[in-house]
């Protein structure tokens, strides 16, 4: 429900503040695309077990934004809309860029203190991979994420909570599976990954990723 309310609010904001009809049309196009099939970041499955799988992701460009905040603070909504504005025209070319999946949020707990790092990214589709438009917002950057192998499994339902507790619980479950199998992985960071619009109520796809060492 929070996601739906947020979406309606942002549509109202765009409609009220848009400098041109083109920006409003871009937003409407992107929201309409929430009901369509998205282009997905490419990967190959290296290994599949009864409890998790290993995937290999090639190097690709993503558009990202990062914040530091307490673990119990939900910063993802603000990050999402920064990236959403980028793909709906807040870039050097005023270009509308198709929504893709997944939306990833790399979560890195602080070594000391209470603040953690959150880096949310949208995959940039193949049409724009070679030369993506540069963001107009200085808090948004184009990054080439190096090739990596990850461990994950897929779970359904809605993961969003104000304190990120569902993501943390799923992370603990995935770690348990990996430890049982003696896998070597980076415990200093993880990715919270979603594939579905808030309007999809069934067969949702959520994943916690750990990078293979």
TrEMBL record:
Superkingdom, taxonomy of origin: Eukaryota
Signal sequence segment: 1-20
UniProt entry keywords in alphabetical sequence: Signal
Pfam annotation, one family: SOUL
Protein family according to the UniProt entry: Belongs to the HEBP family.
Name the record gives this protein: Heme-binding protein 2
């Amino acid at each position: 429900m929070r996601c739906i309310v947020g979406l309606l609010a942002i549509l109202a904001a765009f409609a009220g503040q848009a400098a041109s009809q083109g920006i409003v049309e871009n937003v409407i196009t992107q929201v309409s695309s929430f009901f369509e099939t998205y282009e997905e970041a490419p990967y190959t499955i290296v290994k599949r077990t009864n409890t998790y799988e290993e995937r290999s992701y090639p190097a690709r460009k993503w558009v990202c934004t990062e914040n530091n905040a307490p673990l119990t603070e939900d910063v993802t909504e603000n990050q999402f809309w920064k990236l959403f504005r980028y793909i709906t025209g807040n870039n050097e070319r005023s270009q509308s860029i198709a929504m893709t999946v997944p939306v990833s949020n790399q979560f890195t707990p602080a070594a000391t203190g209470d603040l953690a790092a959150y880096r949310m990214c949208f995959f940039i589709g193949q049409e724009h991979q070679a030369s993506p438009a540069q963001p107009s917002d200085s808090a948004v950057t184009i990054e080439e994420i190096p090739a990596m192998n990850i461990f994950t499994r897929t779970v359904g339902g809605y993961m969003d909570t104000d304190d990120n507790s569902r993501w943390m619980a799923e992370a603990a479950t995935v770690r348990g599976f990996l430890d049982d199998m003696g896998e070597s992985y980076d415990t200093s960071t993880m990715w919270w990954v979603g594939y579905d619009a808030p309007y999809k109520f069934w067969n949702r796809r959520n994943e916690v990723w750990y990078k293979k060492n």
